[in-house]
Amino acid sequence: QTPISFFLKKGPPGWASKNCNSPELSLYINIPKLFFISVDSYLYPMIRLNQDTSAEVLNEIKKGDLVTDTFSKTGLVEEIEISDDGLYKIYAYTLVTGRVITVKT
Fold first, then answer.
1. Pairing of strands 66-68, 47-48
2. How far apart are CA 68 and CA 72, in angstroms?
3. Which uninterrupted H or E stretch holds 39?
4. 20 in Cβ contact with 27 (< 8 Å)
5. Under a CB-based contact definition with an 8 Å cutoff, are residues 63 and 77 in contact?
């Protein structure tokens, strides 16, 4: 049986060591992945699409814009379809992922 002092020094089984200096592991963590996301967000501001988005903003969206529905759909606009059902103007933005964000105004 392993003495308690071992776990105090090393932590529970499966925990990474605090002082791991393996050169193989450090090769893959030079630049964090979030760095690229923040650069993309800075270069391409994300447009939030919902029922409160003005018609002016909805009309200005073009292919290649970065949009989100603030829940689960986020991506670049690939196709835009605008229709009118007599009561609402319906904006459908198809993303490069294949998902569609629909907004009625």
1. parallel
2. 8
3. helix 33-43
4. no
5. yes
